[in-house]
Structure formats: C-alpha cells, structure tokens
Amino acid sequence: MVLAYHLIFTVYGFWLPNDPRGSWSDFVRSWDLYIAAGPATKTSTHKSVAHAPHDYSARIAAKSALRYPPVTFSDDQIQTVAAGFQSAVDRSRFLIHACSFLPTHVHAVIARHKYDIETVMNQLKGQASTALTRAGLHPFQNTFLPSGTRHSPWSEEGWDVYLNTPHEIQHAIRYVQNNPLKERRPPQHWPFIAPYRP
C-alpha cells in the first residue's frame, strides 16, 4: 500500500521532453524544440537518470529553441515558493515530511492524501506561483499566453515515486534533506514540515 510519495518537479526549461537522458514526456509540443532535439525520450524507469552519460552540448543547445528563457530561481524566489507551499499546506492539510527547493527543481516527501499526488503537486505549484506573483517575483510576471493566463514557471509534468514502507519513507526523507548539500547549498528547514512518525 502506498504510504507516501517522493515527488520531484522542475521549473520551466530545466528538463526538456527530449532530454537525451530520458524524460517523462510522450511527445514534444513545440515544433522548434522538436527540430532542435528530436522526439520525446520517454523513460519508464523509476530511478533517477540525472547522472546518466549524455551529450551535454546537445542538451544545452536544445534549450536555445525554447520560446522563453529557462527559469532559475533566486534565493528570494525560493523563499517565496516556500511561502506558497505553506499556504497549500494550511489550506489542504498536506503532510510534507521533507522538502528541498533548488534553483531548478523541488524534491518533497509527502504523505498519502485524499487527493491524488498529481492534484497535490498542482496545488503546490499553484500556490507557489500565486505567492511569486503577489511578491512581484514571478519569472514571467509580464509574460502572458494567448489565453490571457500568465506563463507558468513550472514544467507541466512531475515525477513521483511510491513509498510503500516506513524504511522507504525514511530513506527518501534523508535523500531530500541531503539534496541541497549536494549542490553546495545550506540545509533547509521549513515550518510546514511534519516530522515523520512510523
């Protein structure tokens, strides 16, 4: 039985649907991006492919075909995204056991909720985007789509790993807590974290 999830989602432009290491996408929506880097590289693995050998220059070149500049959050934006997460937790009572915000992606360990994990992710993204807009820190503060909505700072999809045992949850928590250290950033401590008690 699923007890929790290790959820990972990224900012716009960080992990492209045709990334040579693999992606979660079935197709490439942008014709320019398709021409630059080919079709989607759908992978079914549940293990990280972040460190898989690949053509780094090709990956970077593909990003030049994006319609908008890739997002990289500043420290102020990260603090604001965290405030948005707090709003989502307060509103929907999510239990987040660990969370790390990096300039290009988010890791979180989240207890199973009455909402499916995709809905949880979308609420977290939505509240974070609202907080960024209100603070005047949204990366696309003045960039609107033809529909009239502001361009999202987030990629559309995310990646979630089912955690079925207390051991898996504890392992994922340690991984998430250590994630900033791998990027030579200080440890993170957020008020919305709910300690895990097996």
Report on the architecture of this protein:
This protein is α+β, with helices and mostly antiparallel strands and 198 residues long. The protein folds into two domains: 4-10 and 71-182, Transposase IS200-like (Alpha-Beta Plaits), CATH 3.30.70.1290; 17-65, no CATH class. It has helices at 31-37, 56-63, 75-92, 117-134, 166-182; strands at residues 4-11, 96-101, 105-111, 154-163. The protein has a four-stranded antiparallel beta sheet with strand order 2-3-1-4, with helices on both faces. It is globular.
The pLDDT mean sits at 83
Radius of gyration: 17 Å
* Helical content band: 25-40%
Task: Please indicate the count of domains.
Answer: 2
Number of strands: 4
Q: How far is it from the N-terminal to the C-terminal residue, by CA?
A: 14 Å
Beta-strand residue percentage: 15-25%
Residue ranges: pLDDT <50 for 5 or more in a row? 30-40
Query: In CATH, what is the class of the largest domain?
Result: Alpha Beta
The CATH superfamily of the largest domain appears as Transposase IS200-like
| Structural class designation | alpha+beta
Largest sheet: 4 strands, antiparallel
Adjacency order of strands in the biggest sheet: 2-3-1-4
CATH T-level topology of the largest domain: Alpha-Beta Plaits
